[in-house]
Write the structure tokens for this entry.
Amino acid sequence: MLRLGVVSGQGLLRSFFQIFLRPSKYRPFIAFRVEASSRSKIENVQFKVRDYHPEDFNTLWAIDQSCFDPEIAYSRYELQVYLRRPGAFTLIADLDGQGLQARNNGPLSKEVASSQSSILAFVVAESSPRGMGHIITIDVRPAIRRHHVGSALLNAAEHRLRTAKCHAVRLETAVDNASAISFYKRHGYDVIKVIPHYYSTGVDALLLEKNLLSVESSS
């Protein structure tokens, strides 16, 4: 559960800022992740973290729409742009074979059980040649929040960024998003500064950073 905001503006300037400069969205609820071959449990249901495939796109977009308010949720075009940015990667939290069977038997909430997809959550992040990583968005299905899927995704994204020689990672979240701020602080992120009027609603954002070389990811 995590994502950034849309900066207010009009015309070409607004479009440029949203598509090329907007960092990531994040909401009051959290969603995150781990390594591409790792498995974890949610209510005794196992899931794996894997890389994104093009056929996942429609499901990711639908999850994003369910996670964020309309003024912040990505359009299809915006999400496609972020997925294709140089240095970007996307990781998926996906029910594995046992998880699919459990879903069909009903231990998960109705939202997940009724879904035609086994995807629980995803994270989009990117690395830069200067060694700075960036979390663009972390989206977790509402029914799966608070079951450590977001933590698993965040850990996995940080691991991938370390592999890409990133020494630190940054992200943005709203100043009034208490649960997101608490989540990131638990995972070793520190507030660097406030970005005034970052969101289209006029709400300020916090820029947070984590040193990837000196701090190990929380599990």
